[in-house]
Amino acid sequence: MKVFVLIERRADYSRYKPILEKMKADPFFEIYLVVTGICLLDLHGKDVNYIENDGFTIDAKIPMFDSNAPDSGAEMVRSMARVLRDVTFELEKSKPDLVLSGFDIGGNFAVTIAAAHMNIPVAHIQGGEVTGSIDEAIRHAMSKFSHIHFPATEDARDRLVRLGENPKDIYVVGCPSIDVLVNTPYMDPKELEKEFGLDFSKPFVLVIQHPVTTEAMSSIDQIRETMKALKHIEAQVVFLLPNNDAGHSKIIEEIKSSGFTWIPSLPTLKFVNLYRNAWALVGNSSSGIHETPTLKIPAVNIGNRQMGRERAANVIDVPNDAAQIEQAINKALFDQDFRKMVSEIKNPYGEGRSAEQIVHILKNLDLTSVSIQKIFFEGK
Questions:
Q1: What are the tens digits of pLDDT across the range 9-53?
Q2: In this structure, how many other beta carbons lie within 10 angstroms of the beta carbon of residue 346?
Q3: Count of CB atoms situated within 10 Å of the CB of 363
Q4: What is the rounded CA–CA span in Å between residue 14 and residue 358?
Q5: What are the backbone angles phi and psi of residue 264, rounded to the nearest 5°?
Q6: Do residues 312 and 153 make contact, with C-beta atoms less than 8 angstroms apart?
Q7: Are 30 and 59 in contact (CB under 8 A)?
């Protein structure tokens, strides 16, 4: 089976990586890998280098972003349009049996639309989830263009059925990024402490705060509220730079001038091990929802970006208000009863076997039985 995969940013690479590793090790599969988006940009850490260092062959690169373009919703659309146009040539060239797409990311949205129009079956990872911003609309739209579904939870599966997807095409597999957390080798903490100037025996907060596209004009006010809170907290702070959705430039400017330690991106080995030693995650990344329960650390989830998403009890939801953010971080770091509860929770997004299940299902799937013509399912 020839499988076409497109990677735009670290968020989708972290989920694709364990799947790609299993496919690469199995001669049944042939991978056609395309890299685009911020993975090609120096400002965001140029993750394409990490992908190659992980041993994957990149078959094509599609420039998505104009470095001189405005930071706006309109430019997000123009960027998706570039991928939508150019990925059609890669699909024609590679002639894949299947496109594996995922999540709610613009580049994946583009390849999903293109493949559906070109009569190529699409398998979509993590459809059916509820979230905030423009992401939710993109995710549900991708589900409607897809033919096979790999949602993370039963709740997401039921939502796909309500969206008119046939239950026989839906397989609940969990979130594949958890596979990465579970299977990444451990590093000597002393090595990381030295590199990042940290002491893991003392409170350490990892912060990932992205722009919210539907609130792009408020991005600078939102990050400033977070900064105010963090400056009152007795803890070490490390920022990971945000993605480049509309509103990102002001967030990056604030982070770089804040005096806090910041990192554009990291290879998987270092990121996961830094994450393992964090006392809490702060911000609005989906990582706080999907992954922190596995690491048994609290997540302070700020604002509306993950609104409505299924979550474990380790997540503390707060608005973009410095006083409430500060209170939540203090609870996450210093409330011993809360931290004990967090240490015992179960992750609703799985236990780290998603990639294994996805690869097994695809290997045993009869693609000739997959109907390219989508029909709204109205049964139960």
A1: 988 999 999 999 999 999 999 999 999 999 999 888 899 999 999
A2: 11
A3: 13
A4: 15
A5: -65, -45
A6: no
A7: no
Range of weakest confidence among 54-58, 124-128, 212-216: 212-216
- For 53, the token pair is 């260092």
CA distance 63 to 85: 11
Predicted confidence (pLDDT) per residue in 187-217, tens digit: 999 999 999 999 999 999 999 999 999 999 9
Environment class of 161 (CB within 10 Å of its CB; exposed 0-12, middle 13-18, buried 19+): middle
Q: What is the 3-state secondary structure (H, E, C) of 70-126?
A: CCCHHHHHHHHHHHHHHHHHHHHHHCCCEEEEECCCHHHHHHHHHHHHCCCCEEEEC
DSSP bridge pairs for 122: 99
Token pair of 7 as six digits: 């990677």
- On whether the pTM is more than 0.90, the answer is yes
Task: Confirm if 36 and 60 have CB atoms less than 8 A apart.
Answer: no
The position carrying tokens 């096979």 is 148
The mean pLDDT of the chain is: 96
DSSP three-state, residue 166 = coil
Which residues, including other chains, have CB under 8 Å from residue 206's CB and lie 6 or more apart? 238, 240, 274, 275, 278, 280, 281, 282
Contact predicate 149/168, CB 8 Å: no
